[in-house]
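2024-03-11 09:14:02 INFO worker-7 job=invfold-0412 stage=load source=structure_tokens
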């Protein structure tokens, strides 16, 4: 049973299909901050909206894109993929040529996130890691992660 009042950080090891080893390269989701969101990251001098951050702690990462809106809501990009007719993807070796697909942006949906997730990035050769705390879908605090 989930206790919505508990806001302790929760990090899970990603659960990936059997065909992908969990020891292979990292799969992550991307987080961006709206340029009109009034936030500061502790100990970080730059503008957080100019950086695409990474996270593996929202759910099983699938290279999805999230955005924290100007009013502090966590939004997920909704997309679909369509085949591009007449074009094929370049392949190496004996792999078959597969149809080329392109991502179509459908909009943003409010995740209504409640909890804490970690996000990070290397900036100016320094690893920066933070935790974002959301209460009832609204960003309430960002702290530096140790």
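2024-03-11 09:14:09 INFO worker-7 stage=emit residues=146
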């Amino acid at each position: 049973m989930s206790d919505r009042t508990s806001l302790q950080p929760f990090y899970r090891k990603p659960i990936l299909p059997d065909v992908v080893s969990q020891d292979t390269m990292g799969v992550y989701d991307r987080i961006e901050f709206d340029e009109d969101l009034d936030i500061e990251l502790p100990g970080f001098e730059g503008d957080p909206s100019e950086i695409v951050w990474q996270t593996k702690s929202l759910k099983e990462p699938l290279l999805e894109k999230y955005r924290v809106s100007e009013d502090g809501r966590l939004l997920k990009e909704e997309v679909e993929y369509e085949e591009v007719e007449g074009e094929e993807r370049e392949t190496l070796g004996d792999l078959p040529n597969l149809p080329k697909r392109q991502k179509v942006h459908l909009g943003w949906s409010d995740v209504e996130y409640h909890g804490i997730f970690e996000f990070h990035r290397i900036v100016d050769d320094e690893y920066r890691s933070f935790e974002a705390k959301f209460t009832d879908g609204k960003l309430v605090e960002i702290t530096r992660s140790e």
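2024-03-11 09:14:09 INFO worker-7 stage=report msg="Confidence is low (pLDDT under 50) at residues 1-24."
2024-03-11 09:14:10 INFO worker-7 job finished
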